[in-house]
Specification:
Distance between the termini: 53 Å
CATH superfamily of the largest domain: FomD-like
Largest sheet: 7 strands, mixed, barrel
CATH architecture of the largest domain: Beta Barrel
Oligomer: single chain
Number of helices: 11
Radius of gyration: 25 Å
Shape: globular
Helix content: 25-40%
Length: about 475
């Protein structure tokens, strides 16, 4: 089994994979330096599975052959009790006859059946209008917690870490500059592999470090997949009346979201290979600019240990008193709901903030059974690393309407949002002092559906019991 890893979790995941006897390939120069004394082959070879940090740095996406992908998924999702993971309804490489449901300025929203995708006009040859049936392929899948739709194209391709075959190209090219590009293109001509008609070859940057054997293996595997794809699409036909319909399954695709405990566990793994400060991954996940700061600390400090430097991190990147942040309320099935934005009205350098939100009228507060009225105020206390947080609801005149304690994965206070995943079970305290524990059944259902592990569910129940006792 071979795995390619990219992004802010690369060193830790490389160590984790190598410890399990799994080969890491197409390693970057820094990774090769860090593991130069490890008995590992980090050379540029085809990868069975690709692991890459998501754009928001909250977790990783995995793409590859289904069986090895499942092995890697289980390993990565096992780094901490607050990891959650999901498959994909729109995996990379899947081909659909989709139905256009809306046209926007730069592209179209396409109904794929179990999911929606976005088709940029630049990536489709022909006119697109509402109601049209279009044959599209998923080129970039989207994490379930993101606001993005999977990115679609009318160009059919097959991917490998070293080479890409595409029906939208002709001939042979390379995604590198200078003489190396010319060398790779010429090498293709002598490889004992025939590219099928209608497909163009595009070598990727990682191919510059591969030997001729690896290039030949990569091209051969890509050609086999292209031929299988041609056969599958020819057999599928495609009746527009059947749309939306999935014609090609695509590659195995999965997502792993890391909670706060996972990030600190990954710090421990990374420390086996490289000097690593406390909170390395937690800080890098919060802000892109933080990567440089973390790398600097680790480069100049002989022992960057100690406690997580919450005050230093927030003073540099936020959030601070007066800032407005969102309550980013993740759900165990992968969705992300933003529970509005509020102003930080109190800041404690030990890791706690108070968030105040103005509520709109209409409906009622969950479990409290009290009307939500215009002018109400929600006061939420959020503490970094805590498995719960309370929100007190007050009327415009200051009357207390009740307290809702959300049980969740450990809270992370990022510059623009407080991030966690809701674990369903909650505890409420009514205005008359009555304490009630709610939604245990929803947690049980999430466990049965495979969204929440039994270990995580047991932690949630334990926290809820402690909160209930404290409020009683």
């Amino acid at each position: 089994m071979t795995v390619r890893v990219r992004g802010i979790y690369t060193t830790a995941l490389t160590q984790l994979l190598l410890d399990e006897g799994i080969d890491v390939v197409q390693a970057s120069p820094p990774i090769r330096r860090r593991f130069d004394d490890h008995e590992a082959d980090l050379t540029a070879r085809p990868a069975d599975v690709e692991v890459a940090t998501t754009d928001d740095r909250q977790g990783v996406g995995l793409v590859g052959d289904p069986d090895p992908l499942q092995t890697v998924r289980d390993l990565v999702a096992g780094v901490g009790v607050d990891a959650l993971h999901w498959g994909s309804d729109a995996p990379r490489g899947a081909v659909f006859d989709g139905v256009v449901t809306d046209t926007l300025g730069s592209g179209a929203v396409v109904d794929l059946g179990a999911a929606e995708g976005f088709l940029p006009f630049r990536d489709f040859d022909g006119h697109v209008a509402d109601g049209d049936v279009v044959r599209v392929q998923v080129h970039e899948p989207a994490a379930p917690w993101s606001d993005d739709r999977p990115l679609l194209s009318g160009d059919i391709t097959v991917h490998d870490g070293l080479v890409e075959l595409s029906q939208g190209r002709s001939g042979v090219s390379a995604n590198v500059d200078g003489e190396r590009a010319t060398e790779i293109v010429r090498t293709t001509e002598i490889l004992p592999v025939d590219v099928p008609d209608g497909w163009g070859v595009r070598w990727q940057r990682a191919a510059t470090d591969a030997d001729m054997t690896a290039l030949g293996d990569a091209l051969e595997a890509a050609v086999e997949r292209a031929e299988e794809l041609d056969e599958t699409l020819a057999a599928a036909g495609g009746d527009p009346d059947d749309a939306p319909a999935q014609l090609v399954a695509g590659e195995g695709t999965a997502w792993v979201w890391f909670g706060r405990e996972c990030r600190f566990a990954l710090d421990d793994v990374r420390r086996e290979a490289e000097r690593t400060m406390v909170g390395h991954h937690r800080i890098k996940a919060a802000h892109r600019a933080a990567s440089t700061a973390v790398d600097f600390v680790e480069a100049v400090c002989d022992d960057p240990g100690g406690e997580f430097p919450f005050q230093a991190v927030t003073e540099q990147f936020g959030p601070l008193l007066g800032d407005r942040i969102a309550l980013a309320h993740g759900k165990p099935e992968g969705r992300l709901i933003v529970l509005g934005r509020g102003e930080i009205t109190d800041y404690d350098p030990d890791g706690q903030v108070t968030l105040e939100r103005q509520m709109s009228g209409g409906g009622s507060y969950d479990a409290l059974g009290v009307a939500r009225e215009r002018g109400d105020v929600a006061i939420t206390k959020l503490k970094e690393g805590r498995w719960w947080y309370p929100t007190v609801y007050r009327g415009e005149d200051g009357t207390k309407k009740g307290t809702y304690v959300n049980i969740c994965t450990p809270v992370e206070l990022f510059p623009d949002q407080a991030r966690y995943v809701d674990l369903h079970v909650d505890v409420v305290k009514h205005a008359d002092g009555t304490v009630e524990r709610v939604d245990d059944d929803e947690l049980d259902e999430a466990v049965a559906a495979g969204y929440v592990s039994e270990a995580l569910a047991e932690k949630a129940r334990s926290v809820a019991a402690a909160v209930e006792r404290a409020l009683g």
